[in-house]
Fold this protein.
Amino acid sequence: MQVSNNSLTITARTKILNGGPLPTVIAGPCSAETEEQMLQTARALQQDHRVSVFRAGIWKPRTRPGLFEGIGQVGLEWLQNVKSETGLQTAVEVANTQHVEQALRHGVDILWVGARTTVNPFSVQEIADALQGVDIPVLVKNPVNPDIQLWLGALERLNRAGITDLGLIHRGFSTVNNKPYRNHPKWEAIAQIRALAPGVPLICDPSHIAGRRDLLQTVSQQALHLGADGLMIETHCNPDAALSDASQQVTPAGLDALLTSLDLESERV
Ligand code: PEP
Ligand code: MN
């Protein structure tokens, strides 16, 4: 069934959600690094029945050049192995036509648009054009700056291309004062975007909000309290050795402890 509001036509029952009362949990490394790292992380996550989607960055938008910019296409083959071995759904970030084509060719289940891409309507339109006629869920992270209309505009571009299984990810906004968070959560933005995009599930990414693992619990619980439909949490079998975002990633055991500490059915406000 499809429902329409002013600017969006969305599927009433999105594939992104579990379908149950518990939040959807998307976990996996910031970046795909090696096949062993992917499989080791995914095998451990598979044991946790609260986790339904395995994420991994294949192409990484780094702030400055010269850092690890992603493993590229071979990572998609590792992701296929993760999926066939563990049964977890897979999700990757796409930022251009080539990424979309390669991800689709390798059977990725869910795509997401990163914060640095949502900010650019040309890039979002390019992705939307590449997805014309394709039936796949797409999650859209908030733009780096707190511009709700730009976030909504990205949803609309994808929706006009025929994508009806849409989701939102709040990953915080850049500010001049990045203490204590790497990217500041703007909780009122959740209510604002929900009002503009009713029925579109909202997932919180506490990893990119917090920037450090000791703050994940507080941010996650607040998001759930405000009615977030899911959490995306960066998880790595050896976080301190990660090639990107080492300080915010948790081990699968750390994720288990984090999820267990959360009131997952916390009364929504
Ligand atoms: C990521 O999810 O690894 C990522 C690059 O996030 P963001 O687009 O929120 O910076
Ligand atoms: Mn990351």
